[in-house]
Specification:
Blueprint (H helix, E strand, L loop, with lengths): L12 H13 L5 H17 L6 E11 L5 H11 L4 E8 L4 E11 H12 L4 E10 L5
Antiparallel strand pairs: 1-3, 1-4, 2-3
Length: about 140
């Protein structure tokens, strides 16, 4: 285990109160855990801005499978980017709508491009990309 370093943080009491309320709401055991997560999130957010950083992403999207040729279009996009796609899951939501969740690995630029291509496909009702780190640099 790495060495732990203690440091102090000064802030206005109103801000600290709001932070403590959020810590309770999110079920953190203490301020240190919450601050560590905030720092990790800040570091990851900045790492993702570097175009060559290895990144993991998930694309979650809902589409109407009855839209003409949408299944073929989505499958073609996936085959075109097979080297980045780790896994996909397909869920039938109702008679007309499906949900797909795709896990990808690559640079932030590559993953964003794939997500844009999928989400902008006619018949995709909503999509969301979430990117994070592989954890190697934390």
């Amino acid at each position: 285990m790495e060495e732990i370093t203690r440091f102090g943080v000064s802030m206005e009491s109103k801000l600290l109160y709001q932070f403590d309320e959020l810590i309770k709401k999110k079920s953190y055991s203490n301020r240190s855990e919450a601050i560590r997560d905030l720092i990790r999130d800040f570091i990851i957010e900045n790492q993702l801005e570097a175009e060559n950083t290895e990144t993991i992403g998930t694309i979650t999207y809902v589409f109407n499978h009855e839209v003409r040729e949408i299944n073929d279009k989505l499958t073609n996009i996936q085959h075109k980017h097979y080297q980045n796609i780790i896994s996909t899951m397909h869920v039938h939501l109702d008679k007309h709508n499906c949900l797909e969740i795709m896990v990808l690995k690559g640079t932030a630029k590559e993953i964003t491009k794939i997500a844009d291509e999928i989400i902008s496909t006619k018949g995709v009702k909503h999509g969301k990309l979430v990117m994070t780190t592989t954890g190697k640099n934390l």
